[in-house]
Design brief:
By secondary structure, the chain is mainly alpha-helical. The protein is built from three helices and no strands.
Length: 117
């Protein structure tokens, strides 16, 4: 457990795929770590992780759609400016919501870390 707060969360990169929650590995040590990780994320935690990953993939899809709409608009292949603007706004709102959820989760984590046991 890091001292001094949570580790920074890497930012999403366009075209990147979200990592699997428990990647498979062929090494013994990594398998033990994967098994421990798998057991740490089970039950309701696994379901939450799956839902979180699904939500992030939806945000990613909206970002890709907005990028494609912007490129089509810039190249002149689309005449419907409103459609491109709507796609950009959807992506922007989804990203803002995602960042806000992340900030709230980090605040909750920091609050838990400040608790005295």
């Amino acid at each position: 457990m890091p001292i001094g707060g949570p580790q920074p969360i890497p930012l999403w990169q366009p075209g990147s795929r979200l990592p699997d929650p428990a990647p498979a590995s062929s090494t013994g040590g990594a398998q033990a770590g994967g098994a421990a990780r798998g057991s740490a994320v089970s039950g309701d935690g696994a379901q939450f992780l799956k839902e979180l990953q699904r939500a992030l993939e939806q945000v990613n899809a909206l970002q890709i759609q907005a990028e494609q709409a912007g490129q089509s608009l810039a190249s002149g292949s689309v005449d419907d400016v409103a459609r491109a603007m709507i796609a950009a706004q959807k992506a922007s709102l989804a990203l803002d919501l995602t960042v806000e959820v992340r900030n709230r989760a980090l605040e909750a984590y920091q609050e838990i870390m400040r608790m005295q046991v």
